[in-house]
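User: Okay, second chain of the day. Same drill as before: sequence in, structure tokens out.
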Amino acid sequence: MTIMNKIDFRYGEGHISLDMSGAKSIKTLIGTQKPALSDLPLAFRQAVEDDCIGATPLRRLLSPNDQVTIIISDITRFWMRQDQICPLLVDYLHETIGIPWENITILIALGSHRFQTEKEMETLVTSRILQKVKVVNHDCQAADLVCVGKTSRGNDILVNPLVTGGRKVIVISATSHHLMSGYSGGRKSILPGICGLETIRRNHINSLDTNLPKSNPLIGMGALERNPVHEDMDEAAALVNPLFGINIAVNGEGHISRLMAGDFKTAWEASCIECQESMGLEISEKADMVVVSCGGFPKDINLYQGCKALINASRAVKDGGEIVFLAECREGGGTAAFFDWIAPLRKGQLDSALRADFTIDGYIFYAFCEAMEKRRVYMLTKIPQHDLQGMPIHVYHDVETLLRHIDFTSKTVYVVPYGGNTVPF
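Assistant: Same drill. Structure tokens below.
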């Protein structure tokens, strides 16, 4: 039996509709939508006091004379809405515990990313907090980084001095599935967040297989056990030994749905379970075809941001199957640091080039290419076709032309409307 179905997807700031008539079956893969917290200030206070996970309430861990460093993420992770949590935490430290404004510093965990502008700092922490406390960009190439020890893999952990010298460290982060480290958040705010460039590089190069030109089979979405990227990060975080962690869960509409706070590692592990329950989806079998949207703007603003949707979708399609990838990409590939890797790809040298000069952008590009192996990919986008030349992808710029080249007849189809946040297992 065949079915008729026309399905809408977000694309850029609009919607498109695909007629999937003739498909054998169509199933939508979407995460569990959890409601937004109705009273965020109350939820925050409960999270850092009565509902602490694996720790005593925050007010008992600090005294008014303490020097405190709050680690937050940069503007590329604004979706986690730490701008709503950071003011609550700073006010709590000052008003409830009695810590002077001048004893509180906010450190932006940039990893190897660019510095944040004054306007971006204001967006991240609010203008009021920016006027009250010092906000600092981490510099992964600064001369005053401090070595706090070495991991079992021989990685020297050089960190920002603002997390050393007896300062009390509190980390605000959000947890989602992560391609290299299994899950984001928590220890990732330490490494790569506030570490030196060589420390970051030595950690991330574990993403590649030690013998073959491919990704390390031990890494991947939701993978923690024996994952060398995660384990190295975990050991680095233990050397810094943050006092407290506040983990944010965000629902599909971008609203905070839960706060998990307490012992840095234990509370983060609880947030991983929450992430898996809301965004990880078990499938009984892979489909002949997956139709995936990034979820519209800004998630499909460029290919660097949008490619995660295709990487996730590739987990749900059979070898030899097809992926229809809907990503407007009005800004093209994204940063040059990402799209420049197409040059060694065209020369057949992507693996060797990445091993010689490993970067996060380069590995994301590498994983994107791997996700298209053994699959036929059709992409609806605004990226000019010649810009994607050399990649195993068929590019279309209008729905009508796209539909003339794909056939749903008698195929099992998964529909993934929010591909960046939905991870099939």
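The radius of gyration is 22 Å.

User: Thanks, on to the next one.
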